[in-house]
């Protein structure tokens, strides 16, 4: 694990983590939607 020495490094690291979390949330939304609507009877 590398040490963060500057504010710019901290902001870049934080932004990268946020982007990863957004991608994971967008990927999980359709799966969760299918889970919710999968039990509906037509």
Structure description:
The chain has 42 residues and is mainly α. Helix content is 74%, strand content 0%. It contains one helix and no strands. The mean pLDDT is 91.
Task: Provide a brief overview of the structure.
With 42 residues, this protein is an all-alpha fold.
User: What's the overall average pLDDT, rounded?
Assistant: 91
Low-confidence stretches: none
Shape: rod-shaped
The helix content is over 70%
Helix/sheet category: mainly alpha
The N- and C-terminal alpha carbons lie at a distance of 52 Å
**Number of helices in the DSSP assignment:** 1
Helix and strand pattern: H
Record the SSE blueprint.
Elements: H1 7-37
List keywords for this structure.
mainly alpha, rod-shaped, 74% helix, single chain
